[in-house]
Design goal:
By secondary structure, the protein is α/β, with parallel strands linked by helices. The protein has helices at 3-29, 68-78, 93-101, 123-131, 153-164, 178-187, 210-220, 232-236, 245-259, 279-290, 295-310, and strands spanning 37-41, 44-45, 65-66, 82-86, 109-114, 136-141, 168-171, 193-195, 225-229, 264-266. Strands 1-4-5-6-7-8-9-10 form an eight-stranded parallel sheet. The chain has a two-stranded antiparallel ribbon with strand order 2-3.
């Protein structure tokens, strides 16, 4: 090998070593040296013998196996420290399936927001069963049986039980409104409530609608209500989603002003993010909007608020 080729070879080796070191350090400490907890991912296997009730087989992006080894790669590349899984299935037995799926790595998979049938006779026993696992941090309210008549005495009983146990309520806004959140928060002030996906509105890149702003402020007046800055690609309804921070800024600004730095929490909604772009692209948009607010705000958004809300060690 000539001296010139040997020099080039050594340069390549040095570059690979530096890159490997950077990736390792990034995966261990997160962006900018602070911890990152992704509080909204889904794990499932569309090819399980029992199948899945979500996503549908027609979804060519999401209908696949989405397992810990796949998210481990996302963490390695993007510097994610740990995650809270949000159950996407309405089948009760799938709560245990997820808990078993990630029991090998409790440092990365630190919590599960489960799915249980609120307002049913079996709710209390099911909650007692799953809450014995300290990774089971609460449930997500996603389905609305009964429509406008959803909030029965049985529903209020179960939500009160959730509060009594110190567990949390994530709210998927597809079937619920900020008015619903306001009502729950007022009646159960000790129940910690997390509104998913920047309240579930469609993000258009335009100035925020004043009526929406008013409902955000009304819900945010309750100190037990938090907002998850998550799922922003999905909320555009576009494939691929816009990648400029300015497109999302009007919505971020309203959420930040209403909830403040202590009640905003980061989540990705991976793998649904794949419909709009890469994990890194969505993360960068959220990071770059909040970065000018300073490192304290970033640490709260990306980890500290999640630890407080979900009670993570």
């Amino acid at each position: 090998m000539s001296n010139r080729n040997k020099g080039n070879f050594l340069l390549v080796l040095a570059s690979v070593a530096i890159l490997s070191s950077c990736v390792t350090k990034r995966s261990q400490s997160g962006h900018g040296g602070f911890e990152i907890i992704d509080t909204h991912i889904h794990l499932y296997d569309a090819h399980r013998p029992a199948g899945v009730d979500w996503p549908p087989e027609t979804d060519k992006v999401l209908f696949r196996a989405v397992l810990p080894e796949h998210f481990d790669e996302v963490c390695q590349v993007n510097g994610i420290s740990s995650t809270v899984i949000v159950e996407a299935s309405s089948r009760v037995e799938d709560n245990q399936w997820v808990l078993d799926l990630v029991k090998h790595n409790p440092k990365r998979y630190v919590g599960l927001v489960g799915s249980l049938p609120i307002g049913t006779d079996g709710f209390a026993d099911l909650l007692e069963r799953y809450a014995k696992d300290n990774r089971y941090v609460g449930i997500r309210m996603r389905d609305r049986p009964g429509g406008d008549d959803f909030f029965t005495d049985a529903v209020w009983r179960d939500l009160a039980l959730l509060s009594k146990k110190g567990l949390v309520l994530d709210v998927l806004m597809a079937n619920f409104t900020l008015e619903d959140v306001d009502k729950i928060a007022a009646r159960l002030p000790d129940l910690k409530i997390l509104v998913n996906h920047v309240t579930g509105l469609i993000i258009t890149g335009e100035k925020a609608d004043p009526a929406w702003v008013a409902t955000v402020k009304k819900a945010a007046r309750h100190q037990n209500v938090y907002c998850k800055v998550s799922g922003i690609f999905q909320r555009t309804g576009k494939m691929p989603a816009p990648k400029k921070v300015s497109y999302y800024a009007p919505i971020f600004e309203v959420v930040y002003q209403a909830f403040g730095e202590d009640r905003i929490i980061y989540g990705s909604n991976w793998p649904v993010t794949d419909r709009g772009g890469s994990y890194a692209e969505q993360f960068s948009i959220i990071h770059d909007f909040f970065a000018p607010e300073g490192k304290t705000v970033l640490r709260k958004l990306f980890a500290l608020n999640a630890r407080k809300f979900y009670g993570l060690k």
